[in-house]
Amino acid sequence: MPVLPSPEEIAAARTPKGAWTRAQLAEWGVPWPPQKGWKDELIARWEAAEQGHTPPGPPTPPPGTLDFG
What's the pLDDT tens digit per position in 9-55? Predict the structure, then answer.
């Protein structure tokens, strides 16, 4: 099961150039290349888990793509 990072952990994991490594994203369950909105999705899931709610399910990905949920 992927690690569910906090918003602070996501920000702290940025490289000096301001991106994230492929390995780091894989640890969080985000496929490469990351799809638009991946960071917002992780934050929403983390916030839902912190509030004791079940995180929302992943959106249905377009055919032929991978979902990081």
Answer: 999 999 999 999 999 999 999 999 999 999 999 999 999 888 875 55
d(CA 20, CA 34): 10
Residue 45 CA neighbour count, 13 Å, CB half: 20
Q: How far apart are CA 67 and CA 61, in angstroms?
A: 6
Reference 19, options 28, 10, 27, 30; nearest CA is: 10
As a whole number of angstroms, the distance between CA 62 and CA 5 comes to 25
| Cα 64 off chain centre by | 19
